Amino acid sequence: MRAVIQRVSKASVVVDGEPVARIGHGLLIFLGIENADEKADIAWLSKKVANLRIFNDENGVMNHSLLELGGEALVVSQFTLHAATKKGNRPSYIKSAKPEVAIPLYEQFVQQLEQDLAKKVETGVFGADMKVELLNDGPVTIIIDSKKKE
């Protein structure tokens, strides 16, 4: 499971011209699920995201987590995070999980993050052509891979 996490002042998702999700200060999490992912990846990544200390304290030092601040979260599925670009110029998505595998894991990740944060998590629409708008705060962008534990 791979996540691109962006600290945002605000973020939103629109599908077919209709707004489907919106958050204020918090994290926008692009989530890519691969064939080898399982429940252990969900638990590890959710806890890491909830406790990642990337929000400023009163001294301007990144010392607070989303959990501590009570910020908002928006999770957007993104199979392209597992693109393989070694050969040629057309990315291969062979490692990305098919919807029948990815959807349940995506939904379980959202549920786990809601439990870890003790609040509702907003989501995009799995598999939809989404228009994602964000105001990156910092900018702060972190990439985490559950297989590499980094």
What count of domains describes the coordinates?
1
Q: Could you state the CATH homologous superfamily?
A: D-tyrosyl-tRNA(Tyr) deacylase
Q: Determine the CATH topology.
A: D-tyrosyl-trna(Tyr) Deacylase, Chain: A
Shape category: globular
Secondary structure tally, helices: 3
Secondary-structure element order, as H and E?
Answer: EEEHEEHEHEE
Percent helix: 10-25%
| Integer-rounded radius of gyration | 15 Å
CATH architecture: 3-Layer(bba) Sandwich
Class from helix and strand fractions: alpha/beta
Query: What is the strand tally?
Result: 8
Mean pLDDT: 96
Q: State the end-to-end distance.
A: 11 Å
Q: Uncertain spans, ≥5 residues at pLDDT below 50?
A: none
Q: State which percent range the strand residues make up.
A: 35-45%
- Major sheet characteristics: 6 strands, mixed
> Given this structure, which CATH class is correct?
Alpha Beta
Summary?
The chain is an alpha/beta fold. It is built from three helices and eight strands.
Description:
The chain has a single domain, classed as 3-Layer(bba) Sandwich (D-tyrosyl-trna(Tyr) Deacylase, Chain: A). Strands 1, 2, 3, 6, 7 and 8 form a 6-stranded mixed beta sheet that branches. A two-stranded antiparallel ribbon has the order 4-5. The mean pLDDT is 96. With 150 residues, the protein is of the alpha/beta class. Helix content is 24%, strand content 39%. It contains 3 helices and 8 strands; from the N terminus they run E-E-E-H-E-E-H-E-H-E-E. Helix 1 (39-51) packs parallel to helix 3 (99-117).
